[in-house]
User: What shape does this take?
Amino acid sequence: MRTFRIAMAQMNPTVGDLDGNVRRITAWLREAKKAKADLVVFPELAITGYPPEDLLLKSSFLSDNRRALQEVVRHCQGLAAVVGYVSQSDGIESKTARPSVVSAGSHKLYNAAAFIADQKLITTYCKWYLPNYGVFDESRYFHPGRRLPLIRLRGTLIGLNICEDVWVPEGPTRFQALAGAEVIVNINASPFHLGKSRVREQMLATRARENGVVLTYTNVVGGQDELVFDGNSVILDHQGEVIARGKAFEEALIVADLNIEAVARARRAQGQKKLLPKRVAAAVEICVASLPAIPKFRTRVVPDLVAALGPLEEVYRALTLGVRDYVRKNGFTRVMIGLSGGVDSALTAVLAVDALGAANVWGLFMPSPYTSRESYEDVAELGRRLAISVRTIPITTLFDTYRQSLTETFEGYAADATEENLQARIRGNLLMAFSNKFGHLVLTTGNKSEMSVGYATLYGDMAGGFAAIKDVSKTMVYDLAKLRNCRGVTPVIPKRTLDRPPTAELRPNQKDEDSLPPYEILDPILQAYVEEDRSLEEIVAVGYERETVARVIALVDGSEYKRRQAPLGIKITHRALGKDRRIPITNGYRNL
Assistant: This one.
């Protein structure tokens, strides 16, 4: 049986850390060599990290990226590799020129995959389809590729393409298969959002089956600013069946023996194949790569077939990895969290402990005159269960001083949200004082429901460096807390924290529902308006009260200035509050 051994390095690079990324790549090269792989595949832009954004405007960065590639070539002895990097050339001109885009600075750049064999750069494939929606800005930097190189290695014809290319039915995958490719190697930096891995795998199965190819999908893993990459690298046979799947949210080397003979048999059975369009045929290049002889004794590999995670578990793992990588990749060791006794700060603390360890998480409890006995007790119990350091600093005296200083100015005005926000801003100041003094990163605790409608205080509870649950609705916060409490013998979040009605405790007997619709009503409306761009009429048609929907939309539209000043947070939904949703602050359009 004709087989081909592939290894997919699901690695966690750091954007801009070229030397560190090369070290990671060379370490995986050694592992692939031990596994006697014919080809080892690395993710999209593995050398630079993804997305490199305006680093691509720096000529020194581009030069260092090329030198880094040469270093990888030098280490690739005795095996072949596919490595993502930035190219300044698409090779020879062809008749399949694609629409041009504005180049980054004075450079003409390509999102590229280098094919290396035994210390030689054989060819480069440049990405054809550049995503320019949601969090993606690739047309800002890159030109689309024009060539379709295929590589013959150990009797197997391989086609390369990159991320978005495989999503297009009549795209590079189809053309490479028609040109004779038996294996498609697709490299990716595909960020996570809830449900994406299942949709992605269904699409890949369709693409493999309709083209009669083995399809390998190598994805990056790790956190990069607000993005988290889930890995979930996968291999599908020519019938669209999954034969290998890597772990989610963890680095891994996925090794599999591909049955190339089965592909050849299926094609012979199909008989006459469709011809390549003439405009595409001119772009095809067949390159030949050679390697030392296959080892005589190579035990057949049984590939990993890791079970897919459930939706909530996916989100929890994404949040944990996002916190860990943001903290560590930015040079921090410890984090500070303002604990209130509520579920949002409790979940944030638990995520931080799972990501960084209890010794690296500090809690600061800052009770005001309106803080309940239950909150005192629940914060203490949470700290005990998590084994974290919790410092208590009452803010009543500071709050009184603020009010006294403002007495003359505010004379004749009734107390309102101003006095409530003073408490939040005092707490924000104290958290940032700890951060300045000890160098700890402050994690804010606001959720997506609050951030959407502006139920948050600028320079108060929004003060901090990273918003762990910024894209998590309030109802999902409870679901994640309950999920986490199911692990281990003792729940980490006190039951009363989950049972008490949500409250900011900024005035006597305050409840969130005094200011907002109940979260079980608010969250579906927010999902429809913020994530799905539905109009007021469309949301009302589903069954929600017009007055409630109009009020929620007005709150969302009126809070854009707050969100623009908020710390970035981890994207876990299809449309997060950040790069995904770019609404002007100065905006006269109202959909009411």
Notes: The two ends are 66 Å apart (CA to CA). The CA atoms of residues 159 and 504 lie 57 Å apart. Confidence is low (pLDDT under 50) at residues 92-104. Residues 311-564 form a domain with the Rossmann fold fold (CATH 3.40.50.620).
